[in-house]
Structure formats: structure tokens, C-alpha cells
Specification:
alpha+beta, 4-stranded antiparallel β-sheet, 3 helices, 4 strands
Length: 107
Amino acid sequence: MSELDIQIPNAFDPFAEATAEDSSAGSKEYVHIRIQQRNGRKSLTTVQGLKKEFSYNKILKDLKKEFCCNGTVVQDPELGQVIQLQGDQRKNASTFLIQVLIIIWKL
């Protein structure tokens, strides 16, 4: 067999349409709620992707008061402002943000 007879299929690029200029990727704004494992049983919940017009400090204050945990707002060069909460607060934070954002959208 010669080298010309072998055809290697093109690799599938899952990010091809995200980088295409004509696609509508990135038009939806998502809020990402993630967990980071620290050490042992300790964990850290991060919330990113909220709109810039929201006051991150007020949201953080309400989250801390509602779930009895500590937290902070961190400025990241790539991701912008990120809310960090102590513990696994994924479910709590998601339901809280859904309820609060529904109220804000109705006003």
C-alpha cells in the first residue's frame, strides 16, 4: 500500500461551530454554578456568568444570610467577577438565583 491510498478521516472538532462567526453561539447568557474540591471534605462553590448590571455584593450578602455560609466576590481576568461560597451550595444557589431572577424579571 502506498501512502496515497490511505485516507485518514478528518477529526471531529466539537468547538468548530462555536468559533464560526455566523453561528449564534454565545448569544445565550448562562450562569455557571460549579464546585471545587479543596482538601478532604471541604469544598468551594463558584457562581459566574451573572449580568454585569447586578450588584454582586448584594447577591453575595443575601446568599450568605440565606444559607449560613461565608463567601466572597473574586475578580478574575478571564471570567470577570465570580462569587465564591463555602461548602457545596450548588442546589441552594441555583434555586435561590432562579427565584430572585424571576422576581427581578417581573418587575
